[in-house]
Amino acid sequence: MQLAVHEAQDLHELAMSCVNSITNMACFMNQAQDAELKAILQKHFPQHLQDYNMKVEYLSKAAGAVTKLPVPDLQPVLQSFTQAPVAPLPVTPRTFVQQFNDREMATAYLLTLKRSGREYAWAAMEMSNPEIRSFLEDAFRMCSHHAYDVWQWMVKKGYYPLEPAAKSTLDTLGTMYQLVQEPMTIQ
């Protein structure tokens, strides 16, 4: 498979991002104190390795990747999607750090997933090769679903705020837009 120059450059940047993510995850798995956070990282880790290996295959083999990236299902665990089970806990950046705490590791991983997801979506829009475009769409969905897992853990711990929108806000926004009536077909 011949890559266009922009495809090769995008895959290169995305592969470098994977090197960073995988290295951080390996460190975090060894340092995580919370068993649930550690389990999330361990569950996600093989998919990030496969994602990286597929990029290497696209960059190094004329035939492209031989496998399809699995996209995990969303796993909702929160009882309410608009109200946190605990109040958010304040946070202040630490300026002298020997080792990350669980909150810092989860934050770093969540922000990495969000950034990676945006990069995958952006790069997918630029791919001329349909196989690579589909792979990057799957990689976006993988990051999105992994971010959901980490986000839920953070909400449960009070590390990420979640609260329902005010009724007045919903009432205001709800009156701004009207449903489109079925358009008449032109013959």
TrEMBL record:
Keyword Cytoplasm assigned: no
Compartments where found: Spore coat
InterPro entries per the UniProt record, alphabetical: Ferritin-like (IPR012347), Spore_coat_CotF-like (IPR012851)
Chief subcellular location: other
Highest taxon in the source lineage: Bacteria
Pfam families from the UniProt entry: Coat_F (PF07875)
Keyword entries, A-Z: Capsid protein, Sporulation, Virion
Recorded family membership: Belongs to the CotF family.
Cited PANTHER family: SPORE COAT PROTEIN F-LIKE PROTEIN YHCQ (PTHR39183)
Name of the protein described by the UniProt record: Spore coat protein
